[in-house]
Amino acid sequence: MSSLSAHGRLTIIAALAAWLSVLPLFAITITDDWIVPAGIAVALVAGTGFVLRKLGVPSLLVPVAQLAVVVLWLGVLVANDVALLGFIPTTDWAARLVDVFQEGTDVTTMYIAPVPVPRGILMLVVGGAGIVAVLVDALAVWLRRVPMTGFPLAACYTVAASVLTTNALDWWWFLPPAAGFLALLVSEGRTRVASWGRSASPSARRSGIPETDSLARNGRRVGAVALIVAVAVPGMAPVLTEGLLGPGRGGGGGGGQTIRTDNPIVDLQRNLQRRENVEVLQYTSSADEPAYIRIVTLDVFDGEEWKTSDRPVPDSVGDGLPWPQGLDDGEYPVVDYDIRVTDDFSSSWLPLPYPTQRIDIDGDWRFHGPTLDVVADGDDVRARRYSAQSLAVNPSIEQLRGAGSPSDDVDPMLELPDDLPPVVTEVADEIVADAGAADDFSRAAALQEWFRGPGGGFTYDIESQPGHSATALEDFLDDRRGYCEQFAATMAIMARYLGIPARVAVGFTPGDYQGSRTWMVRSHDSHAWPELYFQGSGWIRFEPTPASVTGPAPDWTLIPDDDPESPNANPTAPVPTSSATAPAIPRDDQLGGGATGGGQEPPSQWPLVIVGALALVAFFLTPTAAARIGRELRWRRAGDDPAASAEAAWADLREGARDAGIAWDPAATPRVTGRRVAEAASLDADEREVLDHLVGAVEQARYARRPAPVESLRADTDLVLRPVAGSASFARRVQAFLLPTRLRDSADEANRTLIDAFDWIDLTGEKLRAATSSAALRRRVSTPRPPAE
Fold first, then answer.
1. How far from chain centre, in Å, is Cα 408?
2. Is-contact 481 461, C-beta < 8 A?
3. At what angle do helices 422-435 and 470-479 cross, to 10 degrees?
4. Mean pLDDT, the chain, whole residue set
5. What PANTHER family does the record point to (predicted)?
6. Using one digit for the tens of pLDDT, what is the confidence trace for 227-274?
């Protein structure tokens, strides 16, 4: 086999191994949209490397070119609309890559695996696959250090094992990268064996035992090591418990089928995109109509996201919840709920209908008065069963249209950032003007109709980019595509702009009817909707998400086609729902008040950034530091022994020369080697004299009966090493910094020790099998045959 064909085969197998190593990321992503782009990235890396090496491009430039190709491919994926001809970089192209990368890192801080695959995550995964491919190609094809490819090949598996928090990564996800690693070892071994020719080991000839096939031995060894690593890595990998790559701003889900929500809006798209429609909870109601089940209310918009306000929750739910904010006093029908949460739903927030007044549940659950959100510190709703009583509030259109001015305590629900995109306010003004809305309710109804009806021209699309920042909402209004998160967030912002207090609720749509007034809620029922405030009726649910997903909007939000301005109802108090037949509960003033504020701000990311930067610096400095420590230990072991000191100096020169790219023949005499080093490093007369002094000390140590002590040997060695290092090319200097000869020799020595151990195990096994076979043969020979009849 020619060297070219061997080189090509190794390139292809390195690419295959890199692609296989990325497959464990299936376990932490919801969709597989990334697999083909990742495969193309790996193929581009392999093709670029093969062509450039065939053209004789300097080896150090090949990985640089491969990384450039990966970046260009990422641009094709996420920035083709701002590139010349779809792939030629421009200024906008570079800015887009930076923005998308930031989007990806934002998703990693918001979600716990498994995560959706918007374009930011797509960029991270495909870029990661490309980097793994570059490293594997460089180690296997360029440096011919195939065993070291195990480190990048295990990278994606280690990431997947470390970010799954609820369930450990299944062991079989280690098989794809292990298979790629084994294929690389076998390919490299075959190439090496073919170049040597066939031979038998001396140990096999001495023992008379047939030599075990080397490839079979390597297969058994790699299989054993792979099995050990598959078991050990998940246990050793650090587990990220709050976000994919850092502290999250909300919950997420663990592995397997578990749904987890702490700040659920960041999990909406993930739950809606899940392959499995996981059962979350089941509830039975005393009313005939189902209910939206709310988890948490997001009442602060800071320009980047909707989130919970600061809300300490000192009051327990044991004595009941306070009267709903803004709801007039009176008697309202009550609906009883029996709620059973499955083992597959995990949350510190308690799923409840709004407005709940009483809860019967074990544990320390506390409420936030203005929102009636219920949360536990250190507790979980998983596998819980509890009961609740909720008021049935069904205001009429006339009551909502006649609502008075909002009370001062909801003024914070009107706050908006100063840099709100102009398109948001312009569209809101246009909607209200076109509808001729003259009061807050008519304005709110007009917004809802615009989002749901043909006027807005929106398309519901769960594949849309997640997020509800001001920029994301501007894109949403421009593209007219999104899912419930954007519909709810945008309507709430527009309502605030129009002077209507608004917030965003996150939870579930009613679910599927099971019979006997029982409904089953699943992960695909995850939803977000806006709640708008009307004095006297309190917080009222609106539904801007298209009807194809949510069904009809609430009756109280729909203005009849006939004369909507004709009041025909008593506006003094909301009327009960027709389906609620349970006895009414009067308002209990003793339960009023409540707490004033909520969740916690996300921890600062700067500590993580600083730690990451220090770790990166340590990663690059470690090889050089380790080599220097090894050299120091070698000199200490030599002590005052002249022979040991001379060999230590010679070892320093050998490593320095090899780092500089100077050929070193271990079979050559010290004098011949010294002459070669002097010529290759272009030493001057003084430096040659010092080198001759060092050569003489080595000859004394090796050939003299009693070597004479040599003074200043280490200083002389340092004096020679400086010009030797200076003669190295830039590429050699980089290689010597990242992977000095001292470290490579230590790795080779450890590798030989491991191979010797495996050889001993193989030889012992062969001897035992041969002894067993010989004993069995002797028994058959010594056993007399029965006489023939």
1. 43
2. yes
3. 50
4. 77
5. PROTEIN-GLUTAMINE GAMMA-GLUTAMYLTRANSFERASE (PTHR42736:SF1)
6. 555 555 554 444 444 444 343 333 333 344 444 444 566 566 566 666
412, 370 Cβ separation under 8 angstroms:
no
In-domain check, residue 246: no
Q: Give the pair of three-digit tokens for residue 282.
A: 């089941």
State the CB neighbour count (10 A cutoff) for residue 480: 12
Both structure tokens of 37: 């782009």
Tokens matching residue 416:
């908006």
How does residue 43 score in pLDDT terms, banded at 50, 70 and 90? very high
Check residue 375 and give left, alpha or beta (phi > 0: left; psi -120 to 50: alpha): beta
DSSP 8-state code for residue 3: H
Distance CA 387, CA 727 (A): 80
Compute CA distances 288 → 356, 360, 516, 518, whole Å. 17, 22, 9, 9
**Cα–Cα distance measured from residue 601 to residue 249, given in angstroms and rounded to the nearest whole number:** 8
641 in the same domain as 593: no
pTM, to two decimals:
0.49
Percent share of the chain, pLDDT over 90: 26
Q: How far is residue 535's CA from residue 330's CA, in Å, rounded to a whole number?
A: 14
- The phi, psi pair for 125, rounded to 5°, reads -70, -50
Structural domain range at position 141: 3-197+212-236
Return d(Cα 132, Cα 152) in angstroms, integer.
6
Domain assignment present for 273: yes
User: What string of DSSP letters covers 7-29?
Assistant: HHHHHHHHHHHHHHHHGGGGGGB
Residue 268 lies in a domain: yes
Regarding whether 747 and 731 lie in a shared domain, the answer is: no
Question: Given this model, what pLDDT does residue 307 score?
Answer: 87
